[in-house]
Write a structure and sequence with these properties.
single chain, alpha/beta, Diaminopimelate Epimerase, Chain A, domain 1, 2 domains, 6-stranded parallel β-sheet, 6-stranded mixed β-sheet, 20% strand, binds manganese (II) ion
Length: 327
């Protein structure tokens, strides 16, 4: 006797059928989060399920905003949504609840499609596809391949962009699935459109943040610390952390910006044995929150806790990270 099993992605379709669906990305969504949600939205649409993509925070990068236009993506800030009800279904995309970067919205989080490690506190989802890959967009691409359904050119291009961005062009945290999915998308995507996404990626006013980071850099062993002492978008802090990591003498970078609400951290590691996610979590324990992948992670310390850092917060931050590295 053979048993007929429902292919995994179809279980998500069945779960969502008949419900009002929101696809919620992590706060301040990046290209991987947006492309994954967009890919999933079109996948569900193929099976007759309508959904809205939403996020909390802002879309503060030029290249991320450029995606909306290039790929015809419609995405809503939660501020623009006033009719979400408790019975509405939410799919967490490129994030998990409860995590500091995933705001708890009124709807019911029934499903999760993500590539971040599972936290102890991760909520039980009715549908949970958490696969450790370089990009969440790879998981979503695989849904099309598994079900062998057509993929629109703009969707394919957006997914390829998400994979390329989150894996730093297939070198950061990359897994076989990422490489396979880029190969799969190649035939459907518009590679000229994709390459145009790489033109003009730095905005003129970003230069002041780069300038501050260069001025404030200090290197201890192979750990590069730097900070931007003024308001700076989260995504730019992340890009500057990548930039500091690219220095020959730096294998672990800790970059933070001082914003109105507190200090936002972006941590990178290319050092064997140093897991960026665990490092930031440990360093900020008791002060704030942090987490992420082995290669890239983020953290936050709110203003209420800042007083405990003393007059020279830069020194305390160095001390916390160096201690966490040594333990
Ligand atoms: Mn991602």
């Amino acid at each position: 006797m053979t048993t007929q099993t429902t292919p995994f992605p179809m279980q998500l379709v069945r779960l969502l059928e008949g419900h009002k669906v929101y696809l919620q990305t992590h706060n301040f969504p990046d290209p991987d989060a947006i492309s994954s949600a967009f890919g999933l939205q079109k996948f569900l649409e193929y099976y007759g399920i309508q959904s809205r993509i939403c996020y909390v925070g802002s879309i503060d990068r030029f290249n991320t905003r450029k995606m909306m236009e290039a790929f015809d993506i419609e995405i809503f800030s939660y501020d623009e949504i006033d009719d979400m009800k408790e019975e509405d279904y939410i799919v967490n995309v490129d994030c998990q609840k409860p995590n500091a970067n995933t705001t708890d919205l009124p709807g019911n989080e029934v499903a999760c499609v993500d590539h971040h490690p599972i936290f102890v506190e991760t909520k039980e989802y009715r549908y949970q596809d958490i696969t450790i890959t370089g990009a969440c967009a790879s998981i979503v691409t695989n849904y099309y391949k598994t079900m062998n359904i057509p993929i629109d050119c703009k969707v394919a291009t957006a997914l390829a962009y998400g994979i390329k961005m989150d894996t730093d062009d297939l070198i950061r945290g990359v897994k076989q699935l990422d490489v396979d999915m880029i190969a799969y998308l190649y035939q459907y995507a518009d590679w000229n459109l994709l390459s145009s996404m790489y033109n003009s990626t730095i905005e003129f006013h970003d230069l002041s943040a780069y300038g501050a980071a260069i001025e404030n850099i200090e290197v201890f062993d192979d750990v590069g610390f730097s900070y931007i002492p003024f308001e700076c978008p989260n995504s730019l802090v992340a890009i500057i952390s990548d930039f500091i990591l690219s220095l020959d003498v730096v294998d672990v970078s800790v970059v933070y910006s001082v914003n109105a609400a507190g200090i936002k951290f972006s941590v990178r590691s290319e050092k064997y044995g140093v897991d960026a996610g665990k490092l930031v979590r440990k360093a900020l324990e008791g002060y704030g929150s942090g987490g992420g992948h082995a290669a890239m992670a983020g953290g936050f310390v709110g203003n209420d806790m800042l007083s405990r850092f003393g007059a020279v917060y830069q020194d305390k931050i160095k001390e916390l990270f160096m201690a966490a590295l040594k333990s």
